[in-house]
Design a protein that fits this description.
elongated, about 15% strand
Length: about 375
Amino acid sequence: MGVTLHKYIFNEIWPTFLVSLFVAIFIVLATRMVSIIELVVNRGANAGQMGMMILYLVPDIVVFALPAAALMAVLVAFLRLSADSEIIAMKASGISLYQMLPPVVLLSLAASALAFFMNVAAVPWGNSSFKDLVFQIARSRADLGIKERVFSEPFDDVMFYVNHISTHDHVMKDVFVVDRRDKTATNTIVARMGKILANTDKRAITLQFKDGTIFVVEKDLASARTIRFDTYDLNIGLQDIMAALQSRRKHASEMRVGELISRIEKGTINTKLLNRLKIKLYEKLSLPLAVFLMGLIGAPLGAHLRARGRSKGIGISLVVFLAYYVSFTGIERICESGSLAPGIGIWLPDVFLLLACIYLLRRISRERPLNPFRRTGDA
């Protein structure tokens, strides 16, 4: 009886879990497609590179979606059992809510293990590989976007005109460049020759000019000056190549556990960056725990509700997940500022989920209302 019951409940849960996870991935990925399409249209990325960018984004999206998917799958399954009076029939047969939990625990543990693997290994790999690919696209764009005897703008606010460019060694001759990235001044560079260099470690492109002059003009035209140089390096970083993509990623999110611990132990970085590294380190464990607790919370919530249809279950799941996500994001910002120690703050949402889980299981298993001030027989 026990094995049959557990299989029955598990078969109610896992299809909804997979569908919820797939839909969440699709929705979040759709919001990221604007940046990817911009790379394809304006930066010369091909279909293969577009596919790889999507692949690199998936681990981060999966970690984000797993808590909601686990909660929604369990809640909707128990909501269906409750609406069809199957939970009442089970209890009448002497089966308690706790005896229905093994399939819930199994799925929650599987989702938590997936979140742990993704957070520890796949997310840093995806974030780092994504930036490397953006850099490769940008470097290719620099090579292809600079044309001989044509005004071109391969990077935002940096305009080129060259008399000759070698596609083999990326050497430019008779170069004219207008750099408008500085908000206070415009730099015009005239050089006899230049070369495109790639710094893979720093993910930056260096345009090295030789034997030339820089004309610096203030934006308000209040002053101007001329600088002669033998060698001058103009750096184009990821923030110049793709500002939107750079701003949505933290450097700490590219690091594995060993790298985070090593950077933290060095202690030679500013307080805000140190807190950010600690936050990312503690998240490796706190997020998988949140996934597990979200799955457990769905069982008593679904068993308590009597509504038919899945829309109410989905709505409640999204509200609970949104409350968790907002609180987690807010505490993360507080910890980053140093107002709260990351070792304490990052675990607070999990503590709240644990207390909520214990409270719901105890109240629902004893057939008591969720409101502790309301009597069982009250309407």
